[in-house]
Amino acid sequence: MIRSITQQKPLEEIDELLKGLGRVFLIGCGTCTTLTHTGGEPELSTMRENLTGVGKLVTGQVVVPVACDNLTGEIIKDYGGQIDQANVLLVMSCAFGVQTIASQLKKMVVPALNTMFIGKETGMGRFNEICTQCGTCIIGETGGICPVTSCHKGLVNGPCGGTDKGKCEIDSNRDCAWTLIYNRMKELGRLDSIKKFQKPRNHHGEPMPGRVDLTEKTQEATAK
């Protein structure tokens, strides 16, 4: 299951972000941050206690099903009175959820979490990054294993000289990504694929911020 992996900001940072804002409404997310225990009901309740302890008035709280869904605006209309009483929304979701909520309400919005990466649950309470969304995917030539995220150095043309018995020199508890790729491609009989030289990653290949517009292609297809 793929999730946005988050960590709570230090309480000191949250307190600074809320400086001068005494009435707070809390919003959590029922998917990613509930799974990672950073923005579900228990975390909202703990945050409420912390805020009350420093003199803040919490006007209400809600865990919406999916904070990054555009329907979130409709859902939190039921809490309009409590939101109106607040002068800031403290959102315990990923950055996408925070931005979605901010675009739908005319209220000051503050994130309580840091969004770390897109990850997959590999065990109870354990998440590994699986994609940096770099826009230059090469996993078709590496057996579905991404060296950009799986390798500590992000090497795209084979292992460094530090790999030792299939382990990473930076983290000896972690398998070397290129050893995993080699074993996968050997098993598939496709070792020739990893002999292809990958060009250096172009970190400036796309304008920032990223944007994809499919309307032109749709119009072209319709014209034909």
Overall geometric form: elongated
Q: Class of the largest domain in CATH?
A: Alpha Beta
**Strand/helix succession:** EHEHHEHHEHEEEHHH
Q: Specify the CATH homologous superfamily of the largest domain.
A: Diphthamide synthesis DPH1/DPH2 domain 3
Tally of structural domains:
2
Q: Could you tell me the mean pLDDT?
A: 86
Regions with pLDDT < 50 over 5+ consecutive residues? Answer: none
Count of DSSP H/I helices? 9
Major beta sheet summary: 4 strands, parallel
Report how far the terminal alpha carbons are from each other.
40 Å
CATH architecture group name of the largest domain: 3-Layer(aba) Sandwich
CATH topology of the largest domain: Rossmann fold
Strand order of the largest sheet: 3-2-4-5
Please give the number of β-strands: 7
Q: Give helix % range.
A: 25-40%
Q: What proportion strand? A: 15-25%
What's the Cα radius of gyration? Answer: 22 Å
Topology:
Elements: E1 2-8, H1 11-17, E2 23-29, H2 32-35, H3 41-53, E3 57-64, H4 72-75, H5 80-85, E4 88-92, H6 95-104, E5 109-111, E6 113-123, E7 126-131, H7 147-150, H8 177-188, H9 215-223
Parallel strand pairs: 2-3, 2-4, 4-5
Antiparallel strand pairs: 1-6, 6-7
